[in-house]
């Protein structure tokens, strides 16, 4: 098979200084809670407590909006499909919900947490598995095909989580003292690695992310710094500081797609960028916002990133900028149509009266439930009256047949 060669912008500090806000959206006046790209990079998912919005990343347009007033989600993520997603719920049962954007219904509810879920991560390269972490100190491993979690890690306090790019291992934390690496194929056993830390700072760890090359792990804090560690040895790599976080918020940080730079949100709509290896500050980008950047993520395979506070901002290189280019090889896109259904353009979706789509699958019916039309019910009733008038004994209703009261009759047997 022939290999396609493409030229892409080399993501250096000088290149990042030439990024600008190419498109700005403001769906509401609320601070955004979560942001996620789909695995193929075609869609972007952004949510606040009352709205969930899906964007087309290529056209930088809004695909659909979902009204989430009754759920107050704090974290969202795509599944392996671009038309199905997971979101948390801070109201009612605290269940994680599996939403189908095409049918506009929840496919399944995942109940297991007793406090708010603050981390959701779908396993890369897998169609069914994801992990959640909550403020109830539970880390649960799920399969989309069942409502019950398949594995649980008990011994962690305020855990964070992140899959590595291959989806073969995931990392989790225990407060600010320890990072554990788990193999997804040996979840019933002890972790593969444990890295213990003694930090002088009182900062809380707020976010964890593997570098796209899988070599390091980035830890965000609620102070004015973040840091990275080696994913194999656990050794401290580098710290990244110098930005403002006066309210001690869980400001986000992320790697660029080539793992060479680290970006972090800051107060007043600023975004800082450092060299991932040296920790040298390379660029500071300014937006028109006065709010702290609450969400930040770099596109998985394009020279683009998105930040959110009250507004959602798409950042792209300036068209007239001076850049270095690198050649990258990749397999050509198959000409056959994709097996995953594409999300059609949808209007605003209101889930006020939504119920779980497969709720009836768990209900076991005994006998057959027959819903006859009214005309047929009258015919059966008249036939029964004629038999009684002729002095004949009425036949018993068949299994599941509608009786005179119009309700289904259930037949049970005893041993």
UniProtKB/TrEMBL annotation:
It is found in: Nucleus. WD repeats lie at residues 110-152. One of its GO terms (cellular component) is Set1C/COMPASS complex. Keywords: Nucleus, Repeat, WD repeat. Pfam families: WD40. Residues 334-347 have a biased composition (Pro residues). Residues 326-361, 388-415 are annotated as: Disordered. GO terms for biological process: RNA metabolic process. Residues 406-415 have a biased composition (Polar residues). One of its GO terms (molecular function) is chromatin binding. Belongs to the WD repeat SWD2 family. This is WD repeat-containing protein 82. It comes from Drosophila albomicans. The lineage of its organism: Eukaryota, Metazoa, Ecdysozoa, Arthropoda, Hexapoda.
């Amino acid at each position: 098979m022939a290999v396609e060669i493409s030229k892409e912008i080399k993501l250096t500090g000088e290149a990042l200084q030439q990024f600008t806000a190419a498109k700005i959206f403001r769906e509401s006046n609320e601070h955004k809670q979560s942001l996620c790209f789909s695995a193929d990079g075609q869609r972007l998912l952004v949510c606040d407590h009352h709205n969930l919005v899906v964007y087309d990343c290529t056209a930088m347009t809004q695909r659909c909006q979902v009204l989430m007033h009754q759920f107050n989600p704090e974290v969202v993520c795509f599944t392996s499909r671009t038309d199905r997603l997971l979101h948390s719920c801070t109201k009612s049962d605290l269940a994680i919900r599996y939403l189908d954007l095409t049918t506009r219904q929840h496919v399944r509810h995942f109940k297991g947490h007793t406090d708010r879920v603050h981390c959701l991560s779908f396993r890369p390269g897998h169609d069914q598995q994801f992990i959640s972490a909550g403020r109830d100190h539970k880390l649960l491993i799920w399969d989309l095909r069942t409502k019950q979690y398949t594995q649980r890690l008990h011994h962690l306090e305020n855990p964070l989580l992140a899959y590595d790019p291959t989806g073969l291992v995931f990392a989790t934390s225990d407060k600010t003292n320890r990072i554990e690496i788990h193999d997804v194929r040996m979840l019933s056993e002890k972790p593969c690695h444990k890295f213990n830390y003694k930090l002088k700072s009182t900062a809380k760890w707020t976010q964890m992310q593997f570098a796209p090359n899988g070599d390091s792990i980035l830890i965000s804090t609620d102070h004015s710094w973040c840091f990275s560690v080696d994913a194999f040895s656990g050794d401290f790599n580098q710290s990244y500081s110098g930005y403002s976080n006066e309210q001690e918020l869980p400001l986000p940080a992320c790697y660029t797609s080539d793992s060479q730079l680290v970006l972090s949100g800051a107060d007043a709509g600023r975004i800082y960028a450092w060299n991932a290896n040296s920790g040298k500050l390379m660029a500071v980008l300014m937006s028109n916002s006065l709010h702290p950047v609450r969400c930040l993520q770099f596109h998985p395979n394009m020279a683009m990133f998105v930040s959110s506070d009250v507004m959602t901002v798409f950042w792209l290189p300036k068209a007239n900028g001076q850049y270095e280019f690198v050649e990258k090889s990749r397999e050509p896109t198959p000409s056959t149509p994709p097996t995953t259904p594409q999300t059609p353009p949808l209007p605003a979706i209101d889930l006020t009266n939504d119920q779980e789509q497969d709720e009836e699958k768990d209900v076991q019916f005994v006998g057959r439930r027959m819903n006859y039309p009214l005309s047929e019910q009258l015919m059966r009733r008249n036939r029964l009256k004629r038999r009684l008038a002729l002095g004949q004994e009425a036949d018993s209703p068949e299994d599941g047949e509608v009786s005179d009261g119009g309700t289904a009759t259930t037949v049970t047997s005893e041993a």
